[in-house]
């Protein structure tokens, strides 16, 4: 099995899942300029949208996926419409617009079911599962994650196997079943390595590092994160890099290295702000407040900051993150 980047379509299908986003953007722009059919143009615009989304250039990503959708719609191409809607829904989730993400991804599933590309349906369903999971609906999305894992194994799609394993592992991790979570992240890492899916491997290493840290091995966890960071930098995976750094802050915090954690969290807040990723930015702020509290920050200020973060998470529909803010108040102030 070898990982394939299914979102790179038509003349861009030869691009590797490991292609740097700068290369993807450059080739997609060339294909867009040379496109002679609506299908070619929709595919090029989709790749532009995805490269820009992952680079944190969210305004251009928004324009590109909408243009891809309009081109596909005018041509009556349901498959291309589904891919564009998937891209738009994924971008909406990244920007913290979860209601819009659900709406666009649901439309993507419907378009894919009218079309002929099973991968478009799989990606759209995966997008719905991931949106629910990041909001904290673990019970509601576990079954869909498991269904998609079974389908991916059956047809031999290593990239989707890796994605589904990582999602299920996150659910088990948040439920406190660390052994199962570690086993699944480790399997995902091995499959990603064997199929040369460097992006999936970097995300899996982050999960393994998290569980390694929770087992009391911070130095090994930091080593794993450094390995994953090299891939993120080589491929220009800006969001993945920011989440990698946030996990570094988590590892340092758990190890009682609060001053180091504070510096990492502070820098990570800026990273997430730069790429318009409000969920990651708020989670990094939570780590920053906790690190400051451990170093003697005013309890009144800590309380105010945690109340503000709890309100932000609640208003955004991030139930699990809101619970984390409440847990931090109990841990630091009660």
From TrEMBL:
SUPFAM superfamilies recorded for this chain?
TPR-like (SSF48452)
Q: Which InterPro entries match?
A: TPR-like_helical_dom_sf (IPR011990), TPR_rpt (IPR019734)
The record's listing under Pfam families reads: TPR_10, TPR_12
Organism domain of life? Bacteria
Q: Which Gene3D superfamilies match?
A: Tetratricopeptide repeat domain
Q: What is this protein called?
A: Tetratricopeptide repeat protein
Q: Which organism is it from?
A: Saccharopolyspora terrae
Classification lineage: Bacteria, Bacillati, Actinomycetota, Actinomycetes, Pseudonocardiales
């Amino acid at each position: 099995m070898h990982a394939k980047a299914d979102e790179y379509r038509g003349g861009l299908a030869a691009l590797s899942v490991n292609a740097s986003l700068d290369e993807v953007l450059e080739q997609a722009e060339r294909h867009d300029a040379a496109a002679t059919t609506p299908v070619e143009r929709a595919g090029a615009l989709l790749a532009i949208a995805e490269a820009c989304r992952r680079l944190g250039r969210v305004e251009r990503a928004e324009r590109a996926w909408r243009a891809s959708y309009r081109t596909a719609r005018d041509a009556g191409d349901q498959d291309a419409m589904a891919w564009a809607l998937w891209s738009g829904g994924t971008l909406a989730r990244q920007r913290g617009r979860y209601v819009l993400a659900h709406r666009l991804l649901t439309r993507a599933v419907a378009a894919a079911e009218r079309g002929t590309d099973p991968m478009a349906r799989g990606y759209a369903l995966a997008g719905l599962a991931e949106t629910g999971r990041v909001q904290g609906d673990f019970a509601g999305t576990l079954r869909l994650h498991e269904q998609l894992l079974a389908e991916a194994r059956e047809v031999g799609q290593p990239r989707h196997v890796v994605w589904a394993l990582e999602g299920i592992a996150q659910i088990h991790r948040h439920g406190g079943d660390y052994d199962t979570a570690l086993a699944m992240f480790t399997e995902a890492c091995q499959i990603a390595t064997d199929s040369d899916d460097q992006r999936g491997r970097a995300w899996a290493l982050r999960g393994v590092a998290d569980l390694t840290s929770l087992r009391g091995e911070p130095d090994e966890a930091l080593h794993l994160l450094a390995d994953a960071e090299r891939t993120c930098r080589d491929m220009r995976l800006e969001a993945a890099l920011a989440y990698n750094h946030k996990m570094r802050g988590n590892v340092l915090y758990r190890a009682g290295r609060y001053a180091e954690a504070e510096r990492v969290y502070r820098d990570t807040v800026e990273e997430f702000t730069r790429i318009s990723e409000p969920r990651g930015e708020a989670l990094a702020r939570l780590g920053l407040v906790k690190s400051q509290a451990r170093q003697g920050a005013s309890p009144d200020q800590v309380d105010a900051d945690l109340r503000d973060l709890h309100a932000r998470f609640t208003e955004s529909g991030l139930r699990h993150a809101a619970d984390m803010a409440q847990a931090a108040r109990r841990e630091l102030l009660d």
